[in-house]
């Protein structure tokens, strides 16, 4: 009679030891820029949440009001960006893919990747989930984008000036690919 209990416990331990694939997809800078409309260095000036029935009933969205500069074009950016989920305990609605509370606090600076979503109510600028917001902190006297690990747009910490140059270079590559040529090709 003891054997089945021991076997069941061993089987349960074996199942728990099997690696489980995460639902969060890491994206390189080029992959993330390829599916988003803009990449901006912003200051978060406001944060609110609201309940919605889009894309399904009973969800909660967080709206960040941001001001800054497009890293792709250098143009000023003043807009709202949205992500599914909320850090407000009253909303009781979080998702595994939403940006962290620390990355989205009011008064913080961040690099935000967002996409104009024409299918959403009000045609929201939606953030690319966990990979869509990278906080900026002061490091050794200059602003630094905080990296998120291998496979993400910014794998490790990078100076904002270097991040700007990398985004510009990647944007040029994407535009050249869309035009059917490679950067540096002579025509």
Concise summary:
The protein has about 190 residues and is α+β, with helices and mostly antiparallel strands.
Considering the chains and any ligands shown, give keywords for the structure.
single chain; 187 residues; alpha+beta; OB fold (Dihydrolipoamide Acetyltransferase, E2P)
CATH architecture: Beta Barrel
Q: pLDDT below 50 for ≥5 consecutive residues: which ranges?
A: 1-23
The helix/strand order is HHEEEEEEEEH
Helical amount: 10-25%
Shape: globular
Query: Any idea of the CATH topology?
Result: OB fold (Dihydrolipoamide Acetyltransferase, E2P)
Taken together, the total number of domains comes to 1
Q: How would you describe the oligomerization state of the chains in this entry?
A: single chain
Query: What is the number of strand segments?
Result: 8
According to CATH, what is the class?
Answer: Mainly Beta
Strand content: 25-35%
Describe the structure.
Strands 1, 2, 3, 4, 5, 6, 7 and 8 form an eight-stranded antiparallel sheet that branches. Mean pLDDT is 86; it is low at 1-23. The protein has one domain (22-178): OB fold (Dihydrolipoamide Acetyltransferase, E2P). It has helices spanning 2-17, 29-35, 160-178; strands at 38-52, 59-70, 76-84, 109-116, 125-127, 133-139, 142-145, 158-159. A hairpin with a 6-residue loop joins strand 1 (38-52) and strand 2. Helices cover 22% and strands 32% of the residues. Helix 2 (29-35) crosses helix 3. The protein contains three helices and eight strands, in the order ααββββββββα. The chain is α+β, with helices and mostly antiparallel strands and 187 residues long. The chain is globular and about 45 Å long.
């Amino acid at each position: 009679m003891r054997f089945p209990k021991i076997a069941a416990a061993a089987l349960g331990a074996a199942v728990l030891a099997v690696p489980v694939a995460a639902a969060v997809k890491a994206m390189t800078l080029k992959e993330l820029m390829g599916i988003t409309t803009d990449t901006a260095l912003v200051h978060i000036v406001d944060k609110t949440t609201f309940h919605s029935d889009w894309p399904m009933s009973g969800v909660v969205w967080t709206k960040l009001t941001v001001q800054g500069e497009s890293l792709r074009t250098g143009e000023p950016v003043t807009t709202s960006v949205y992500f599914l989920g909320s850090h407000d305990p009253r909303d009781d609605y979080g998702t595994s893919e939403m940006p962290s509370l620390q990355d989205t606090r009011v008064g913080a600076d961040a690099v935000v990747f967002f996409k104009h979503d024409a299918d959403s109510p009000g045609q929201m600028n939606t953030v690319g989930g966990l990979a869509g917001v990278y906080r900026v902190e002061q490091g050794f006297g200059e602003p630094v984008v905080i990296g998120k690990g291998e496979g993400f747009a910014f794998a490790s910490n990078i100076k904002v000036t270097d991040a700007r140059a990398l985004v510009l270079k990647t944007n040029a590559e994407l535009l050249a690919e869309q035009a059917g040529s490679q950067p540096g090709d002579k025509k």
